Amino acid sequence: MVARPGRAAREITDIDARKLSERPARLSDISSPHDTLNRSIVAMLQQDGRMPFAEIASELGVSEGTIRNRVNGMKQAGMLRIVAIADPVAVEYQTDAMMGLKIAPGHTPQQVAERLARLPDVVYILWVSGRYDLLVEVVSNDRDGLLHFLDTEIHGASDIASVETMTGLKNYKNQFLLKSDWGERDGT
């Protein structure tokens, strides 16, 4: 004969389950990149980084405080930064080039990346495996600006062994740092 839990035991179990479901979300919960609500918030902020929390809350059917807490949690966890990014196409840069760099012996990709990151024409640096050590994107106001950049910062630099420069002909898509479209993952 199996003993059945009495009413008191069921009530305690129900209370414990309710307490667990009603507990405040921990920082790790509200900042998780796998959370559906977080993905929806990020997708909306990708479209308009200045969208009011009240508008996001209304659209997603949650309170404004929930949105504020989620955004702040994601910021604190380092998974969300809201920044202004100038679109090179919109500001009509005339020259866009992607460069594959091989780093010279005695230097590291990090050292070269840190040097190039300080330059205003450099908009993208990625340490990669394979044929190159770094991929670097450069935008210039004109062809002479690109040539000057190549001459002074690339070809005249002792920390770069070789470079392959690929100038842009037509830009079909550029999402900048926001490569992941969270709103379309997992059917959300």
Descriptive account of the structure:
There is one protein chain. With 188 residues, the chain is α+β, with helices and mostly antiparallel strands. It has two domains: 10-76, Arc Repressor Mutant, subunit A; 95-167, 2-Layer Sandwich (Alpha-Beta Plaits), CATH 3.30.70.920. Helix content is 40%, strand content 16%. The protein has seven helices and four strands, in the order H-H-H-H-H-E-H-E-E-H-E. The chain has a four-stranded antiparallel β-sheet. Helix 4 crosses helix 5 (64-76). The longest helix has 16 residues, at 7-22. The chain is elongated and about 55 Å long. Residues 177-188 have low confidence and may be disordered.
Residue stretches low in confidence (pLDDT < 50, at least 5 long) are 177-188
CATH topology of the largest domain: Alpha-Beta Plaits
- Fraction of residues in helix: 25-40%
Strand content: 15-25%
- How many helices? The count is 7
SSE order, one letter for each helix or strand: HHHHHEHEEHE
Q: How many individual β-strands?
A: 4
Major sheet details:
4 strands, antiparallel
> What is the correct CATH architecture of the largest domain?
2-Layer Sandwich
Strand order of the largest sheet: 2-3-1-4
SS class: alpha+beta
Radius of gyration: 25 Å
- What's the level 1 CATH class of the largest domain? Alpha Beta
Full CATH superfamily name of the largest domain: Lrp/AsnC effector binding domain/regulation of amino acid metabolism (RAM) domain
How many separate domains?
2
| Global mean pLDDT | 78
* C-alpha geometry: elongated
What is the distance, rounded to the nearest whole angstrom, between the alpha carbons of the first and last residues?
48 Å
